Every structure is written in C-alpha cells, then in structure tokens.
Amino acid sequence: MSSAFIKEEDDGPREELPDRPISPHRNLVTLEGLARIERDVARSHAEVEKAQAAEDAHDLALAQRDLRYWTARRASAELVHPIADVSQARFGHRVVVEIEGGERRGFRLVGEDEADPAKGLIPYVAPLGEALLGKSVGDAVEVIHHSARIVEIGS
Questions:
Q1: What number is the average pLDDT over the span 31-44?
Q2: Are 153 and 136 a contacting pair, CB within 8 Å?
Q3: Among 3, 25, 94, 110, which residue's CB has the most CB atoms within a 10 Å radius?
C-alpha cells in the first residue's frame, strides 16, 4: 500500500505552517472591516488557547498561522471614514449600476478582508472595484462582461 494512504502517528510537534500570504496593496478598511479584523484576532487567540489545552499540534499550528495573519492585518489597517462627497465612487461607497436590459446591481467598495462578492462587497483592488473607483453617475463601466452605466453612488 502506498505510504500516502497510511496515517502518520502524531507523536511530536509538526512543522510550523507557512504564513498566509499578505496582500501587497494598502490595507484600507471600513469601520465594519476593522471590527471584523478585531473579531478574527480574538477568535484566533481563543483557537490558540483551545489547541494548547488540547495539546493538538496541528490545530495549534493552524491557529497560530491565522493569529499571525490577523495580527499583521490589524497592524497595517488604514481606517477610511465614510466619505460624504458622492460625486465620484470612492472607497466605502455603494455604487449601483444598470446593466444592458435594465437590470440593476449594487456593489460596495471595501477592503480585501471584508470582501464578499455574493453580498455585493467588492474589494477596491479587484478589477470591478478598480473600474468603479473615480467614476461618476452616468459613466460607463464594464461589469461582469456587460456594459453598464452608473446610476447611483451613495455612502
């Protein structure tokens, strides 16, 4: 039988896992994004303590890796307060576009760690985020392989 199918005994500490990659972009965050990072730091601390108590080397390595990541993201976070001027799409703004055929879709430009495309939260460094930044109501953009027109910008 191949050794790939044999469970290794966990009789010692495992090697430290490589760190999660950190984005080279500025770590811009909204108030919600900063709160999420704080929750993830706290959750990671709790997971480290739990893994230490259970003497689970693998779970400890995972939790420590996550704690290093979230601690670094908290340290580099640049809080961007809501921008009242909505004449152009900026970080933190909600942008509504009308796609050919009249369908409307809304997107909020957020930081990388708070992005959730299924909820319309788009990282400002993603191609769609970059296409929307700096644009005004009436401007044309490419959205999900369709031409679209910005119809609303809000904070």
A1: 97
A2: yes
A3: 110
Mean pLDDT lowest among 12-16, 101-105, 108-112, 148-152: 12-16
Q: Are 154 and 84 in contact (CB under 8 A)?
A: no
Domain locations in the chain as residue ranges: 26-81, 94-154
Digit-coded pLDDT (tens) for 112-133: 999 999 999 999 999 999 999 9
Distance of alpha carbon 36 from alpha carbon 42, whole angstroms: 10
Q: What is the DSSP letter of 148?
A: E
Within 10 Å of residue 93's Cβ, how many Cβ atoms? 22
What is the model's pTM?
0.82
DSSP 106-122: EEEEE-GGG-BGGGTEE
